[in-house]
Amino acid sequence: MTTDLLKTEGLTKTYPLPGGARHTAARDVTFTVPRGGSLGIVGESGSGKTTVARMLVGLIRPDEGGIHIEGRPRAPRTPRGRTARLARAREIQMVFQDPYISLDPRLTAAQCVRTALRLHGREDSHAETLLDQVGLGTREAGARPRELSGGQRQRLAIARSLAVDPKVLVLDEAVAALDVSIQAQILRLLTEIRAETGVALVFVSHDLAVVQHVTEEVLVMRQGEVVEQGPTSRVLTSPQHPYTHLLLTSVPTKNWDPEKATRAREAIG
User: Fold this and answer.
1) pTM score above 0.85
2) Are strands 168-172 and 217-222 parallel, antiparallel or unpaired?
């Protein structure tokens, strides 16, 4: 049996532009994630990282390339039959930057998680355990999304995704809109959940500090292409590609020199 839980090969996605031209949002993206592993996908806005995330979960279909789970090709977005659709949902789940749009405003937090459990044939009693696992207590369990804070809604979105018992959890800028202290809580939560459940994480972010904290491997994208990939500890400390160097020099730190970041951007054109 392969040790790679998730494997992509040559994922490519283009979109038409006025005048007959095409924009390449992602080109030949290939990577693997082991069971229980954690991969970061980083890059500036427009780099293609969210396109890759949406191809993984099935929100958009790649023009070329394939996605494999445990050595098997991932089924089309709309496989025939309820059983096949539920099985596909258990392969990969996604947590969005703004969870509010993906939560039913009519349901309490507990009802939201119970609905996901029932849909996948799991016992309702797991709802309390899942909510507790993400740090939501009795008061939050009885609240509707609009009555929860941004961090609490993100925790609820994670609990609902875990209710499906997924193999892979894709997080697209999942902490970008949160305060720094809440970010730290969510990142610690994700680390704990991965250790407890063995779920693999694909963490899409422009924030290198976040990626460095929660991932073991990282993939750097620019203008739809992978320019560098490897162990996070190596890529984010000893970058080989000028664009990765640019990303690192653009992060404000103690003794940060904005001129250095400007020169790095000029160097890559």
Assistant:
1) yes
2) unpaired
